Give the backbone structure.
Amino acid sequence: SNLKHLFMCLLAISIYFSAIVHLIPVSTAKNGVSSKSRKRIMPDPVTEPPVTDPVYEALLYCNIPSVAERSMEGHAPHHFKLVSVHVFIRHGDRYPLYVIPKTKRPEIDCTLVANRKPYHPKLEAFISHMSKGSGASFESPLNSLPLYPNHPLCEMGELTQTGVVQHLQNGQLLRDIYLKKHKLLPNDWSADQLYLETTGKSRTLQSGLALLYGFLPDFDWKKIYFRHQPSALFCSGSCYCPVRNQYLEKEQRRQYLLRLKNSQLEKTYGEMAKIVDVPTKQLRAANPIDSMLCHLCHNVSFPCTRNGCVDMEHFKVIKTHQIEDERERREKKLYLGYSLLGAHPILNQTIGRMQRATEGRKEELFALYSAHDVTLSPVLSALGLSEARFPRFAARLIFELWQDREKPNEHSVRILYNGVDVTFHTSFCQDHHKRSPKPMCPFENLVRFVKRDMFVALGGSSTNYYDACHREGF
Ligand SMILES: *[C@@H]1O[C@H](CO)[C@@H](O)[C@H](O)[C@H]1NC(C)=O
Ligand SMILES: *[C@@H]1O[C@H](CO)[C@@H](O)[C@H](O)[C@H]1NC(C)=O
């Protein structure tokens, strides 16, 4: 019955998916929500619908490759020229990082098979290209990582075929828009026109490779160089920030207290612990939602023991709590403080790269950061996109830099999250479109935000990163 339940649920999902496709162009007015809440709602699935359904949310998170998605990347008036593009991705679908104690782990095949679902037209060529090896395209220690997933029973955290296909799709979509339509790279493009950076996990490197394989017209190892980023915040040489850590500790305390208040959640963990026959504490520490999401995303029934089965009701309780946790996280703003400091270095680096492009430099026109949920989430929050959904598998956050050909000294930015234009939802450009007919945000707004307003938003008197990170008496 567990399986049947899951099947019914997946059936409901495919209906949901077609509903999403149809919902996007529909104005929020038709949703029948009050005008007060309507204001908060972005016209797309980036935001929560008025009532959040845990299974619906979970399936958006899975990001199961299906119909071609709508995407707003590259939309600009004719007199705008695309100058540079900066892409932040979360790795694609992966095997869980944790096991549910004393249960059989889900049997998922992490080898790549061109004629197994999900398909992608470039999958076969990708496998054959990657299996020939790479030469010296990576900064140490990335060289020791496998170039594609290859275990018949996935290893913990390994990228799956779904994850590879998700990023081949991302790459192809960006190629159609940025290379074919906007000619971001010249035909004789060279290695220094790309800037590539990944954390040291195989799933992020492989996700980056899959995206590039879909994106580049000729995937030539001689033109690929991936830098290694040791920090999930991509903070390079500026990682030391005590105040950021203090915000994080307070945020974790908030999270802990919210959990204690949820008696249904405690009861659910208790039931599940009884099923798998370990102490409740041990089960909770094993973060079972991560493994349960994998079962859900791969249509594998939840595990059973002779004491019973983990089931969809357990899943719904834990997932619903997660959604409530995110809601409280937004209200209490501790995570915002953490995010403003955590995201500053990478945003600062990005505007530096954009500034050089505005000066006419032709290097690093396409930047790719292959990263994690704990990378994208603070960046979204810092930009003021706290209403945006938690980064799903293969999520993409893109900064586009444009030049107005009629006023060549004026540069503008667009911000896109999973294909949706969120430029005017950012805190540095919220009201701009009401004052200006331009469908973009002045680049200066972003620069001012990163150089100064980010710190003002923290509420102290600091106006730079170092002071904000070392504020006394916080
Ligand atoms: C899920 O698995 C069940 C049984 O293994 C199968 O009958 C069903 O078609 C699968 N559903 C999807 C959407 O793949
Ligand atoms: C911000 O970027 C500039 C160069 O563009 C650099 O000199 C400065 O150290 C960076 N600051 C931080 C805190 O990363």
Remarks:
- Residues 243-332 form one domain.
- Residues 3, 7, 10, 299 surround 2-acetamido-2-deoxy-beta-D-glucopyranose (ligand 1) (CB under 6 Å).
- The mean pLDDT is 89.
- The radius of gyration is 22 Å.
